[in-house]
Design goal:
442 residues; mainly alpha; two-stranded antiparallel ribbon; 2 strands
Length: 442
């Protein structure tokens, strides 16, 4: 549960008292129950297995197996490098300001304030923009969760003769989700999270069973690239699956030995190699199994008439449903912390519950408007994670070393500009193609 408290801003900035030259931020973090190396690795792997991994076969279908393997490895390496760059930049800022930790939005603001004069005017705006993108990202996950749960329930109900439209199933899901989201104490969500983790592992085992039960057919059509237009969609889906920025920062903060988290052979790098390998296995074997018939998430391809397949769909739908309040909690708390400062205490009770309900209805309305998983996954991945996981880390690092600390031949400056250019290309192309697909599906 600490991860969600961290992401929603409950964890305070810790102040240290040593001189800058001797100051080690890691020694000034006050963590009640820090996680060990193995616990952090388990949390990282657990946080990366969800709707994203189930969407990888659909992404592989767009580019073919060879290009998809190369593309996912390259995107994974870029994403990993940028997150490590972000962690390094935050560490340097903590040393300068003698803090145990500084949150992402404030880190951006402080870095830009010390950066090129032409950018300093935007420091406070970027502080709020980072917060807005974080909130938008969390609500975007909630949109995807709504559609995922409704689609899997629809397939099960249709097979048993209770046929209804996908939008009607979204209506059925709304009230239980609102009631679940009214839970105030994050600790009360712990059993839900534990149950979700258990059923997710069981569901993945069932999915792997279906992927390997028959001999696969490998032909030239599945190997080669089909359309260049689908490259941005693939990138957006891959970013959605790989980049859990808030979760990663929380795990690094809460680790017992945070220095072991970073580096070429650090925990994060090893964890990402494992995650990319899992995603490639599911993506490639899922595409080999179902070919051009693959749907937005692989659970929708499982045979409806088999009980094991129905159990797998029900398990993943239940797991995603139970984790909804945890994802929504992050957006809720970021908004609520600001709202309650501007309201008299007498209105806190009513406003609190109204906000919880509103933050369920907003993503639900988006899901009802366009109930299609694929374009939404790509859109939120391209927009939010190009910014949070690529562009912002590059910008922060560029400002951090201004004006004379860019290294030999200003290699840091060239590197940061290159990263931002790639991030902007991912952002614009991914959003454009995803919006086009959403319009076509509407």
């Amino acid at each position: 549960m600490f991860v969600y408290e961290f992401m929603s801003g409950i964890v305070e900035t810790i102040t240290g008292g040593a001189e800058e030259g001797d100051f080690d931020p890691h020694q000034h973090r006050k963590i009640e129950k820090p996680t060990t190396y193995s616990e952090t690795m388990i949390h990282m792997l657990k946080g990366s297995i969800g709707a994203g991994i189930l969407a990888m076969p659909s992404a592989v279908k767009r580019l073919g197996i060879i290009v998809s393997i190369i593309g996912l490895i390259l995107i994974g390496c870029l994403a990993t490098y940028c997150i490590l760059l972000l962690i390094e930049a935050q560490y340097e800022l903590c040393k300068r300001w003698r803090r145990g930790y500084i949150a992402y939005p404030k880190s951006m603001m402080l870095a830009v304030r010390d950066g090129p004069p032409s950018l300093r005017w935007a420091a406070m705006s970027l502080y709020y923009f980072v917060e807005v993108v974080l909130i938008f990202w969390q609500l975007g996950i909630c949109v995807i969760f709504f559609v995922f749960v409704a689609e899997n329930f629809k397939q099960i109900c249709d097979f048993h003769g209770y046929e209804a439209s996908l939008r009607l199933h979204l209506c059925f899901v709304l009230v239980p989700t609102i009631l679940l989201n009214l839970v105030k104490d994050l600790k009360l969500m712990t059993p839900l999270s534990s149950l979700s983790n258990i059923v997710t592992i069981f569901g993945l085992i069932l999915v792997f069973f279906y992927l390997i039960e028959d001999d696969v057919v490998l032909d030239d059509e599945k190997l080669r690239l089909k359309r260049f237009d689908d490259v941005p969609i693939f990138i957006g889906t891959a970013l959605f699956a790989l980049e859990a920025v808030g979760v990663i920062l929380a795990l690094e903060y809460n680790m017992e030995e945070p220095k072991r988290f970073v580096g070429m052979l650090g925990l994060y790098s090893i964890g990402m190699i494992t995650i990319i390998t899992l995603y490639l296995i599911v993506g490639v074997f899922g595409y080999l199994k179902y070919g051009e018939e693959i749907k937005a998430t692989i659970t929708l391809n499982l045979p409806q008439e088999q009980k094991k397949a129905q159990v797998a769909k029900l398990i993943f739908a239940l797991a995603i449903f139970l984790t909804f309040p945890l994802q929504n909690f992050v957006a809720y708390n970021m908004v609520w912390r600001r709202a309650k400062k501007r309201l008299p205490e007498s209105k806190h009770f009513v406003t609190d519950y109204c906000l919880r309900v509103a933050l369920v209805i907003i993503p639900w309305l988006l899901a009802v408007a366009v109930p299609h998983l694929g374009p939404f996954i790509s859109l939120f991945g391209a927009f939010c994670l190009s910014l949070l996981g690529i562009i912002f880390p590059g910008l922060m690092d560029l400002c951090l070393w201004y004006p004379n600390n860019y290294g030999v031949l200003h290699y840091k400056y060239v590197r940061d500009v290159f990263i931002m250019v790639i991030g902007i290309a991912f952002l614009l192309s991914g959003c454009y193609t995803s919006v086009l697909e959403i319009i076509e599906d509407w």
